[in-house]
Amino acid sequence: MILVIGASGNVGSALITLLGADAVAAYRDPARTTRALESGQPAVTLDLARPETLPPAPAGIDTVSCSAR
Description:
This protein is an alpha/beta fold. The chain contains 2 helices and 4 strands.
């Protein structure tokens, strides 16, 4: 699985579309994570400024793409 950090941006959202089921979207906003999960897209809440969100996000991930600012 590929974790796409910055999934709501231009590059990240394009990667999510291209990778499809192989991608896990990482969103800063928990509401966006919830909407993605409800639509069937694997997603996690990950905020690089909040260290407590980091440990659970990488479970099952073997590749990371980071396009976050």
